[in-house]
Amino acid sequence: MTAPAWPSSILVAVDGSDSARRGLLHAVDLARGSGSKLTVVTAIPTQLFGYRAGYFSFVDRHARDELRKVAQSLLDDAIAVARDAGLEGIETTAIEGQGDVFEQIADHLQQRAQTDIVVLGSFGHSVGDRLILGSTTQRLILEVARRGLQTAILVVP
Fold first, then answer.
1. Which of 25, 29, 134, 145 has the fewest CB atoms within 10 Å, i.e. the most exposed one?
2. E runs forming strands in 1-151
3. Is the torsion defined by CA of 147, 150, 151, 155 positive or negative?
4. Under 8 Å CB-to-CB from 70, ≥6 apart: which residues?
5. Rounded to an integer, what distance in angstroms lies between the CA atom of residue 125 and that of residue 25?
6. Does some domain include residue 139?
7. Domain of 149: which CATH number?
């Protein structure tokens, strides 16, 4: 498979962290410069830790509702960032699933027709931390390779 000169479809994952915001800014610049379609995703766990029936399922339902509100806020912020940079018409998706975030993103990639490149912010608060990729980023890279998905991954420091 020959990679296109410019990606036609870019996906960026956001979680509210500074590193994810750097990834978003890079993805917006890349999409604007290449004319690519940009999709922004965030993951919502549907199975919360310690799930139990009865009262706790009531609490979990409300916690999921709060997580959905946070996710929508992250996606709204991404739309504003793109608009401020002169990029209109981005697609946003809140992915809900029982797996870890990296699994949810890999599942989403596997279901999509084509994503040329995934942009992720790396984890790192100190110089020493920046030598190691964040666990979600690292695990997503390994999962994309394990599944044989035909997409490139760009990690933004």
1. 145
2. 9-13, 37-45, 91-97, 117-121
3. positive
4. 16
5. 18
6. yes
7. 3.40.50.620
Examine residue 3 and state whether it is found in any structural domain, yes or no.
Answer: no
Q: Which domain holds residue 75?
A: 9-156
Query: What residues have CB less than 8 Å from 142, skipping those under 6 apart?
Result: none
pTM above 0.85, yes or no: no
Instruction: Report the domain count for the chain.
Output: 1
Give 112's DSSP letter: S
| pLDDT by position in tens, the chain (length 157) | 555 567 889 999 999 999 999 999 999 999 999 999 999 999 987 765 555 555 555 556 778 888 899 999 999 999 999 999 999 999 999 999 888 889 999 999 999 878 999 999 986 444 444 444 568 888 899 999 999 998 999 999 8
**Helix (H/G/I), strand (E/B), else coil: 155:** strand
**Is 95 inside any structural domain?**
yes
For residue 140, the Cα-to-chain-centroid distance in whole angstroms is 10
In a domain, 1, yes or no: no
CB-based burial of residue 136 (10 Å sphere; 0-12 exposed, 13-18 middle, 19+ buried)? buried
